[in-house]
Automatic annotation (TrEMBL):
PROSITE patterns: PROKAR_LIPOPROTEIN (PS51257). The lineage of its organism: Bacteria, Bacillati, Bacillota, Bacilli, Bacillales. Keywords: Signal, Transport. Residues 27-52 are annotated as: Disordered. It comes from Mesobacillus selenatarsenatis (strain DSM 18680 / JCM 14380 / FERM P-15431 / SF-1). Belongs to the bacterial solute-binding protein 5 family. One of its GO terms (biological process) is peptide transport. Pfam families: SBP_bac_5. This is Oligopeptide ABC transporter, periplasmic oligopeptide-binding protein OppA. Residues 1-20 form the signal peptide. Residues 27-42 have a biased composition (Basic and acidic residues). GO terms for molecular function: peptide transmembrane transporter activity.
Length: 573
């Protein structure tokens, strides 16, 4: 029988303390008061009720980039979704649907978009297609240093504009205030899904250079949008107060106010139980406690996110990724490190059964996901195999201290970084990873870094980060190119593989795949096989999405595409 790992024993102690802080210890109660039943029936008969404040919680400090065009971390996007609408929506099948904009195309290269008339920014200005052009030009000005460059650089002339060869983007033609024609550099299957569809108010950002926008009050403390709620007050990193937008283009919201606040995750269950919190995503470790509450429902939906352990293989030079770091360049080393991890055990311990291991970087909810069993390397937990691979690759213990030196005979230490928040399980799960590696002879060091500094270090290729824990919400477009392409700044490992790049480019090229979905899926499967063998990042798990929602909250709908518009939500009085 395998000896239980020390970290599992430690985890029991951590979680028992953590969950005890969350639980009030009461048994479940059911309401039998006939007056309450009458009130519920009355609400159902009268339909949505107006008024009330919904309190929404985040478990860690938000970064505070409160604009779709500049945000780059979880938490900020939760807040932005309350006050700014996208031009394009997606249904439960992840198919694009008109929202503010509708469109037509005959060839998937030239699209004509038409805006709803009368949609207004919170500053009173009417939204026009010029605001969309402004957003695209802003991103194109910043080019490769902007995370959304891959969402605009396929527009005809965007690269010339970035390089200063022209003062306008050739592929953007403003027909009138409500009509924009966009011509892409070639016909692609996913030009619509990939294009950046979030306008930027020209009025608000007038006179501010693109490089200074992210730090401006228009992004940090006084953001405006076109959505159902308006930002009234921001306390950076702590809370945001939003009030109803009476002039919302889809109709005034039912709720008067939404308050987003940051709370320590150990307080989540208590606040839900006491009724001081209405809605929150939560970490799976507290699932049993939240499911025990009689005034709260746990809403689950298929996840579009996955978690991985990445290796810094190089740097981003401002235009493209360059693999020029040697320490983790040996793919056998990376493969051995994945064989060394008992992912089943780890996921069960830290994610309450809401996650499952995977061998490719595509969540199963996406139609392009290849079957795990079709991957060329099946990374089952096998520490003996990990040791064998390391031996053959030249990572052996030459000085008898119990840890392996590198093939040159020099000391070798896996320097592993993980972001730190208020969640006490994060350090425990990170330590578990280092212990797995040490059990196969790889000396390891753990560095816990404040979450906001952590992502800055990742993007800037700070040498302090060598091996890192990360995660991606892949969004509605399954195309991996914006995350793993050679020119993508979000390709944090800085992985470069020409064969893999060609597969991703071909998979969206109409001249190659036409409208043949099966052919496109085959190319994506071939790409996943390359990734599976190269493992520039170790796929750890895909995660089911969960939300705790107070039963007094009505009108909420959640599916794989996210929630419905909060203007439809209401509180049972």
């Amino acid at each position: 029988m395998k000896k239980p790992l020390l970290w599992l024993a430690m985890l029991v102690l951590v979680l028992s303390t953590f969950l005890a802080a969350c639980s009030g210890g009461d048994t479940k109660k059911t309401t039998t008061d006939p007056k309450e039943d009458d009130k519920d029936n009355a609400a159902e008969e009268t339909g949505p009720q107006d008024g009330g404040t919904l309190t929404y919680a985040l478990s860690s400090e938000f970064k505070g980039l409160l604009n779709w065009n500049f945000y780059d971390a979880d938490g900020d996007d939760d807040i932005i979704a309350f006050f700014d609408d996208a031009l394009i929506d997606y249904d439960e099948n992840l198919k694009a649907q008109p929202n503010i904009a509708s469109w037509t195309t005959d060839d998937n290269k030239v699209f004509t978009f038409t805006f709803e008339k009368g949609v207004k920014w919170h500053n009173g200005e009417e939204l026009t297609v010029n605001d969309w052009v402004f957003a695209i030009e802003t991103i194109a000005t910043l080019g490769g240093e902007h995370q959304r460059w891959s969402n605009v650089n396929t527009i005809e002339g965007a690269k010339d504009f970035n390089e200063g060869k022209t003062d306008k983007i050739a592929g953007l033609e403003v027909v009138d205030d409500y009509t924009l024609k966009i011509t892409f550099d070639k016909a692609r299957v996913n030009n619509l899904e990939n294009v950046w569809a979030y306008p930027l108010s020209r009025k608000e950002f007038e006179g501010i250079a693109p490089k200074d926008m992210a730090a401006s009050e228009q992004v940090r403390t006084k953001p405006v949008g076109t959505g159902p709620f308006k930002v009234a007050k921001v306390i950076p990193g702590e809370s945001v107060e939003l009030v109803k937008n009476e002039n919302y283009w889809k109709g005034a919201p039912h709720l008067d106010k939404i308050v987003v606040k940051v709370i320590d995750s150990s307080l989540t269950t208590g606040e839900l139980k006491n009724g001081t919190l209405d809605m929150t995503p939560f970490h799976p470790t507290v699932l049993p406690e939240i499911e025990a509450l009689d005034n709260v429902e746990v809403v689950k939906s298929p996840g579009l996110s996955y978690y991985y352990i990445g290796f810094k293989l190089g740097k981003y030079d401002g235009k493209k990724n360059v693999m020029d770091k040697d320490k983790y360049a040996n793919k056998e080393l990376r493969q051995a490190m994945l064989f060394a991890i008992n992912r089943e055990e780890w996921v069960k311990a830290f994610f309450s059964g809401l996650g499952q291991p995977l061998n490719r970087p595509i969540p199963s909810a996406h139609w392009i996901a290849a079957d795990n069993k079709d991957m060329p390397v099946q990374y089952e937990y096998n520490p003996e195999k990990a040791k064998e691979i390391l031996d053959k690759a030249g990572y052996v213990d030459k000085d008898g201290d119990g840890f392996r030196e590198d093939p040159k005979g020099e000391k070798f230490t896996v320097k592993f970084s993980h972001y730190a928040t208020g969640n006490p399980t994060f350090e425990a799960r990170a330590k578990a990873m280092t212990q797995y590696w040490e059990e196969v002879g790889l000396k390891s060091e753990l560095q816990m870094t404040d979450v906001n500094l952590y992502y800055d270090q990742l993007e800037k290729d700070d040498p302090a980060l060598e091996v890192f824990y990360g995660g991606w919400g892949t969004g509605t477009d399954p195309d991996p190119l914006p995350l793993w392409g050679i020119e993508s700044v979000w390709n944090y490992p800085r992985w470069v593989n020409e064969d893999a790049q060609k597969l991703l480019e071909d998979a969206v090229d109409l001249e190659v795949v036409g409208t043949d979905t099966e052919k496109r899926a085959k190319l994506y499967a071939d790409w996943q096989k390359i990734f599976n063998e190269e493992v520039p990042a170790l796929p750890i798990l895909e995660l089911e999405e969960v939300m705790a929602v107070a039963k007094r909250v009505q009108g909420l709908k959640i599916d794989v595409s996210g929630t419905n518009s909060p203007h439809e939500w209401w509180i049972k009085q």
